[in-house]
Amino acid sequence: MIHTYAGYENKVKTNLDKRVESMEMQDKIFRVLVPVEKEIETKNGQRRTILRKVFPGYVLVEMIMEDDSWFVVRNTPGVTGFVGPGSKPIHLSEQEVNHILKQMGMDGSKTKIPFVLKEQVRVISGPFSNFIGGIEEIHPERGKLKVTVSMFGRETPVELTFDQVEKL
Prior knowledge:
alpha+beta; Alpha-Beta Plaits; 20% helix; 168 residues; SH3 type barrels
């Protein structure tokens, strides 16, 4: 894991990818990742999917640690150093890397869901607009929720998409 200037993670990734190619280091530096996760955000009534950095200021590099590969990474513009005590970097365990990849959705898992069971939400579009209800089921693979709303004095389950509701 390398430390970068804040906000320069993608620039460092691009620079490092170019340096690896130009210096023919593909046999020692294999993969460069900026850890991000997808998140659904509501702004001004609009829902959109954004990529949020999991570790701002850090970039993951899969590499064989030798003097020449260390030199290429260390001298890439925007890199402030490796994570570890002194100048000697520490490597991440396979379990830590798998956890990060899972968080990024690179292991086949789905987008982070902004809702939790039993949470109260308001319906913002469709025939049940302005109704308030509780989330009973979440189906992330389909992007849908089952929300129980009170209609005519009875609790009625309604299936809605993520963008049809907002948190209270």
